[in-house]
Amino acid sequence: MTTTVKxxxxxxxxxxxxxxxxxTRTPLVVTKAKGSRVWDVEGKEYLxxxxxxxxxxxxxxxxxxxxxLRGQAGRVAHVxxxxxxxxxxxxxxxxxERSFPGKVFFGNSGAEAVxxxxxxxxxxxxxxxxxxxxEQSFHGxxxxxxxxxxxxxxxxxxxxLVPDFKRVPLNDIEAVKKAITPKTCALLVExxxxxxxxxxxxxxxxxxxxxxxxxxxxxxxxxxxxxxxGRTGTWFGYQQSGxxxxxxxxxxxxxxxxxxGAIVVSDAIATKIGPGTHGSTYGGNPLxxxxxxxxxxxIEKEKLLDRVKLLSDYVFRRLAKIQAxxxxxxxxxxxxxxxxxxxxxxxxxxxxxVRAQGLLLNCTQGSVLRxxxxxxxxxxxxxxxxTVLEKALMHYADGMQGEK
Length: 404
Ligand SMILES: *Cc1c(COP(=O)(O)O)cnc(C)c1O
Fold this sequence. Notes:
This protein is of the alpha/beta class. The chain is 39% helix and 19% strand. It has 13 helices and 17 strands. The strands form four sheets. It has a seven-stranded mixed β-sheet with strand order 4-12-11-10-7-5-6, with helices on both faces. α2 (63-73) packs antiparallel against α10 (286-301) and α3 packs across α10. 45% of the residues are buried. Pyridoxal-5'-phosphate (PLP) binds next to α4.
């Protein structure tokens, strides 16, 4: 069967009839995906350096995860949280054993993990509702998570926001000191801002923030929804700096494609939280938990954390070489396989250009090309992707030169 541009248009037309128009979508109809490869309805193959916004960190349809899901689907798909099931403690144990002593609450998405973080932070500090967040941060689209987000644009039209979030610039310790009041209960930050443009929180700043939180009895909350679960070459982004949070939010890569979210809270916080404080009907359902355990097993069996380090060295070395000869690149930032290429011009045209050549990546904040390649990507695929990107960047830079 051959398919054509018409099939793409047909799907787009049906979407416009029935699906609410909340997303800016690329005209790409995905019918199949495996590893770092994606096929569209027209049969065209793509190399995806941004699989699922970080969700498919093991690549699309990792066989170990898919098998675990199939197996669990044959037993029971949902067990309510007023009962016990064998899977949930296993998933929680798998996370705790790789992070810090504490307990896990499961939800179904990143935003739900953020909401839990906000609620727990306030609950354990009665009368102290203020939470410090960073400019340019992104924490999700529900009212609490949206209010915590350090960007005006996604908030516009949804006022009044949840009150008492205070923004400070990332890596500015004096601003944090100034923002703390007797009513501050927590500081929430991504170890590396994702949507905000791959902005890395420095070790020095994180250490100073940790000290301030201890001094003022505030909870330090890391949003590791994008940096977590292997992305940076360690299980969690905080392990790069050694600064341990009191609460950590997870989603995206955690489920290997299955919708999951989780919050890890320290033992000290866990003792203050009892039945009735929080809940989620689907949270930690057997399928979600099976996927989490399978993701952990796959990362360990395939030694993917070591692989991230190897691939990361390669990517950053190549990007440094490209930057040296490409005048539109002003900085290359990130850690592990979380990579931001800062341009001095708009990046969307480059994203569109390489997509036509079968390469998928993302542009955030208008001028930052963002790559979140799967940990299972082959060096050959990565090399090919970078070659296509390099050509497009050089071509674009030449064009800009010509205009001057
Ligand atoms: C994606 C993301 C979220 C929101 O996750 P959803 O699953 O879309 O609700 C929150 N924080 C960070 C850092 C993210 O990258």
